[in-house]
Amino acid sequence: MAPAWDQLHDEAVQIVIGAGDAGVTLRVVGSGGIRIHCSGPGEAMDRLGRPAKDIDFIVPKEDRKGMRQFLESRGYVVDRDLLVAMEGMRYSFTHAESRIELDVFVERLEFNHTIEVRNRLDRHRYTIPLEELLLQKLQIVNLTVTDILDLSVVLATHPVVPEPAGDEAIDGRHIATLLAQDWGFHHTSMRNLQRVRDAAGTAVDLGEQINESIRERVDLLVRLIEEHPKSMAWRLRAKVGERMQWWEDVDEREATY
Q: Which of 29, 61, 78, 190 is the most exposed place for a label (fewest CB within 10 A)?
């Protein structure tokens, strides 16, 4: 039987706290991070069929050894085949009794597009920052309904602001700055933001008032991204456009989170 959201939430928080006490930095990423950061809409996510899955973390490179020792001390068993295949840059663990599964990424999130996280791991107690939680979903070329739901929940519960305003607001300028360096990531993100906007009130219906709030926040984020000055590399790549593939292909197992 698959673990429930509450079980995964409690285990994720305990792991982050316990790892910190052991001198290891771990932060929750992906859907688990969204669920922790946006605990209020949990019932809506359940109602719309967002399933519990596993817990995903990110760890600094220098903490890999301590991370593995800590997780093994809690009863988790490492997937040695994946560890070898990913050359120590991705770990997978399964708990011997609860069967909870963990994935641990090292330094950065490399999928269809790459997100550097290392220098921002201290901005929230349990998760990577809101901006990276959004970007981790926006970078997916083949977005699913559950991905759209995750994005919608973040936007439904946190305002978009044009400059830093604490860790409970989405810093649109930070996202715009990152996307202004990479046309491919920008292109994927803009397409996905439109998908989120289109889904508000249709595929993802969180109530009329919240749906409108999602659309407004998407519009503001899109405007901030569009208005931000683009790098020379961005402008040169934009001339090529979709004539050349703008994303990295990822193995199905590597892409799961």
A: 61
- Provide the b/e sequence for 148-162 (b: ≥16 CB within 10 Å): bbbbbbbbbbbebbe
- Tell me the residue type at 20: G
**Dihedral sign from CA coordinates of 16, 18, 21, 24:** negative
Q: Which has the closest alpha carbon to 64: 53, 78, 75? A: 78
Give the C-alpha separation, 200 to 255, whole Å. Answer: 26
Structural domain span for residue 117: 5-255
Distance CA 46, CA 226 (A): 34
pLDDT in tens, 171-188: 999 999 999 999 999 999
Q: Do residues 24 and 70 make contact, with C-beta atoms less than 8 angstroms apart?
A: yes
What is the tally of structural domains in the chain? 1
The predicted structure's pLDDT at residue 256: 45
